[in-house]
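For practice. Any example?
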Amino acid sequence: MAAFRQLIRRGRQWLRVVSNEAMTASAPWPLLPGALRAETDPTPESATGSRRSVRDIAVDAGAVAIALLVGGLTSWPRIAAGPSGLWTVTLAVGGGCCLALPLRRRFPLTVAAVAGAISAVSPAAGGAAFIGLFSVAVHLRMRDAAWIAALGVATGLVSSWVTPVPHVPYTASAVIAVLGTAAALGWGRLVRARRQLLVSLAERARRIEADRQAQIKEARRLERTRLAREMHDVLAHRISLISLHAGALEFRPDASPEEIARAAGVIRSGTHQMSDDLREIIGLLREEPGDDTRTDRAALAGLPELAEEFRRTGAEITLITDAGDLVTVPTMTARTAYRIIQEGLTNATRHAPGAPVTVTVRGTAGDGLAVEVRQPLSPKRQEAAVVPPGSGVGLLGLAERALLAGGTLDHGPIADASDGGEYLLRAWLPWEA
């Protein structure tokens, strides 16, 4: 008796542990069949671990217990009457069918067919036949489930005739067999449909997560592109000016103290402005791309300061504005136009320092904003002592920026250099009324 109590106590402890694991699980996977969990659980443990879950073991034990209970109830009248040797054999075979139910997931068709056939002569296999039909309906096609159901109806009718239940009419037994078969088939198909829905939802969730990760990667790529574009647009001309004056100091050791002081002042001012511009870039990248800030809107209002900055390097800059109140220009258009002019002046001072440059800004709300940077082309233009290297992507970046703003950009010589032609950087940007 003490050993029996200890066995019951250990069984209760095992059930309590299993229940706690199921209740504290972070996902519903432990409550799913092992095969279904392998299809729906995205964690690698489901693929490398055992395919039999805690639920599988509990369901198998319950299925065997129910099949034995049903078989025992239907066979009890014959058992109470004192079964013969042949009847004892059929009871044992029927009980064996019940004990074989844990194999129904791997061999659903075989288990269902054998249990259904044996149930024709052994009522003890009746419960196993119904559960086997249910498994076929869950795991296999409707065609396989249909002929197993037909076998179940036929064996049920035969069993009701060969081994009738005392005090129960044959018609009632036949109706019970047909209804039980239909219930097992319908329930199995319903469970199959729900599992297929769960698998499809899990697959959809995986696709959504994959799309989300792809969107995150694309957003990061665009942010890196945006950072690179802002770094180039804002800092390239500063670095170019500093390099130009540093090169002049290197190649002109006989320069006067005034010239050296002026070049050093430009370098110092340029480095200070680079720090300010870098802080501006960081602030810009912390904002959303669509933010409508006052700084962006006032970008074109800073064109005179930009022109004066280049004049201090010795460039001859002529600024012509005929666009009304530049502060009212839309944010994207204003910032794009400012970067185009900034890049145009940087290229002009890099490739033809000292040559006159004309910057023209024209437009009205509703007609758009036109930006032009012109520089004469001459075969005798002054060569720089040091030509700072460029990245080679500035004009490409400007074209991309203008396209993103809804405008256009083109550049190149507009006439032969020997005829006094010009190099023109021209852009049109939208300016809605």
Observations:
- The radius of gyration is 43 Å.
- The beta strands are 316-322, 356-364, 368-376, 408-413, 422-429.
- The first helix runs from residue 2 to 24.
